[in-house]
Amino acid sequence: MEKVCFGIDIGGTAVKAGLFNTKGTLLNNWDFTTRKTGNGKDILKDVVDFINGKMKELKIEQDDVLGIGIGIPGPVRDNGDVLELANLGMGYFNIEEEMKSLTSLKVKAGNDANVAALGEYWMGGGKGYRNMVLATLGTGVGGGIVLNGTLLAGSNGAGGEIGHIFVNEEESSTCGCGKRGCLEQYASATGIVRVAKRVLDVTDEYSSMRSYGDLSAKAVFDCAKAGDKLALEAVEKACYYLGVAMAHIAQVIDPEVFVIGGGVSKAGEIITETTKKYYNEHVMPALKNKEFKLATLGNDAGIYGAAKLILA
Amino acid sequence: MEKVCFGIDIGGTAVKAGLFNTKGTLLNNWDFTTRKTGNGKDILKDVVDFINGKMKELKIEQDDVLGIGIGIPGPVRDNGDVLELANLGMGYFNIEEEMKSLTSLKVKAGNDANVAALGEYWMGGGKGYRNMVLATLGTGVGGGIVLNGTLLAGSNGAGGEIGHIFVNEEESSTCGCGKRGCLEQYASATGIVRVAKRVLDVTDEYSSMRSYGDLSAKAVFDCAKAGDKLALEAVEKACYYLGVAMAHIAQVIDPEVFVIGGGVSKAGEIITETTKKYYNEHVMPALKNKEFKLATLGNDAGIYGAAKLILA
């Protein structure tokens, strides 16, 4: 039978699982609820049980499985060490060794945002490039960096933590990380709403955004696309900070392409175009006019990237 | 005979050359004047003639030379392509192929700041670490990044161009690169003097810095170390920007150590300590308290790193 591998994306509420062949074709995918008991190890047992069940059901031999790639929502060292993950109830342990002892299969783990970047690099918006940055604009802002085809994990798994790049000296509110003025405070879904509310608060000017009882990032972009002046101002502000952060990244690693993903990226080219404008204003000439693209794999980026950890 | 290699550092005024054994011991070193004629190729001929002469003089057989590593003051792609280097009168060509055809030896080239980083990583302030950032504070601010023991060149050789990280929205003067608010405008030798003059200009307060006809970065640091209030203010400002830029770098690549080199770093621990303070204020908790060290190889970092390009 053809060789296959599993790509697993462990999230705070659900686990996504994908079965891939070596060409990167997604043969099948599933999801199930994340169990947060047992110091984080119950979820690993669930993953193993699930994989064993699917192997039996689909008549996949152990010898045909090249391995299991896993993305988890926290820092992972290159050797598989997971630091404490409070939101999954996980303590400190080595996820690769733990899973390997349960399955006798090759196991490779990475941070979920980094793994998603590897997925977009392999089969998504970054396909065809060797050096790529993924910015995931969702509830927070995550990121992942691929250099010469390899994930940049960093010395403690915190490489690509671009959501906490400091971009605003004037900020008075505190970010979830404890600092002030992080990119995430402006370019996440909640960040964009925050920026828009600040724009609305300082004026009595008409804006279609005022008709929303519960303003969302999507609403801000919809209003901006319809020409609403204050919504456009909010989008410009959020993309200014995103462009500045990407300029910082480029001065450090000189990538070929920036890929923008996450729920917020559904707004489309208004984000890539506006961000690119401010990016170009803040990099040295040799770094201007990099490619800016939208992610294409959506919520499947994680399982693709997890599989690629094994197929790399 | 023991195997050796040459490390060459081509600068705007002088070429430095070192002969190394495989353990990284500097056996001999020399320098000669940079010739800027012939579209940059005359200097390569000079280097080759010099190496041939030294091989003859020291009775080194061709078979015992593992290769020639070269650092040049401009962007170099991973394949050896050199883009135009106006200050050396160089056009576009492949330096590795050119040198190889002249010597029949293995040749590997890199950007001088990156190569210096590799030198400090190998035998200097970054020895013992796998992930290192070198910030070179000289006439300008250069940088180089080593990740997992390998130089980060970037997609067009502009990786580690940290001197042009944007750090100040309020700046009115233009940097050499054409932008405003680059790190180099505050943390280079001239940048520090500029910061100090701005501090002096807005007050009539006494400062020992006022007694210098031609204020230098060294003088600013000397006055600061002697307790001069305005000099200390200038040092805090310069190191604030350096700390912020290093925070940006850490959020992108999560290194283990920052090494500070270049002429300005002779001021010593006042720089590393002050920079580290502002660094810690601007990174997420997981990235706090990285190591900050002074470079130790001085002007020899380039020849060490060039040799390491061959021995890697």
Notable traits:
alpha/beta, five-stranded mixed beta sheet, 312 residues, 37% helix, homodimer, Nucleotidyltransferase, domain 5, 9 helices, 2 domains
Summarize the structure.
2 copies of one chain form a homodimer. The first copy, chain A, is of the alpha/beta class.
Helical fraction of chain A: 25-40%
- As an assembly, this protein is homodimer
Shape of chain A: globular
CATH hierarchy, class of the largest domain in chain A: Alpha Beta
* Average pLDDT reading of chain A: 94
Q: Major sheet of chain A, described briefly?
A: 5 strands, mixed
Low-confidence stretches of chain A: none
The radius of gyration computed from the alpha-carbon positions of chain A, rounded to a whole number of angstroms, is 20 Å
Judged by helices, strands and strand pairing, the structural class of chain A is alpha/beta
Domains of chain A, number? 2
Q: What sequence of helices (H) and strands (E) makes up the elements of chain A?
A: EEEHEEEHEHEEEHHHHEHEH
